[in-house]
Design goal:
Blueprint: E1 2-5, H1 18-31, E2 36-44, E3 47-54, H2 57-68, E4 75-78
Parallel strand pairs: 3-4
Antiparallel strand pairs: 1-4, 2-3
């Protein structure tokens, strides 16, 4: 899908430590699952990488927006 940029200091506060970020972001997306199966989330230095099987392009777009609207995230990569 591609690369998306976001405002790092704006968004929902989900994690305090980088070590817990991947799991917290994954939980947030799965809580309101937009249609992503086998979701994998990796967070490092403000960059989130998402992968999985989307039911539709809209489902992947929603997952990207959900990940990007987390405080501390400035970039989302989606495959």
């Amino acid at each position: 899908m591609g690369l998306f940029n976001f405002a790092k200091e704006v968004g929902k506060h989900l994690f305090g430590k980088e070590a817990e970020a991947s799991e917290k972001i994954k939980e947030e997306i799965e809580r309101d699952n937009p249609g992503i199966n086998d979701l994998m989330v990796d967070y490092k230095d403000g960059v989130v990488s998402l992968s999985g099987h989307a039911d539709s392009p809209e489902a992947m777009e929603k997952a990207v927006l959900m990940a990007g609207n987390v405080k501390g995230v400035w970039e989302v990569k989606a495959d």
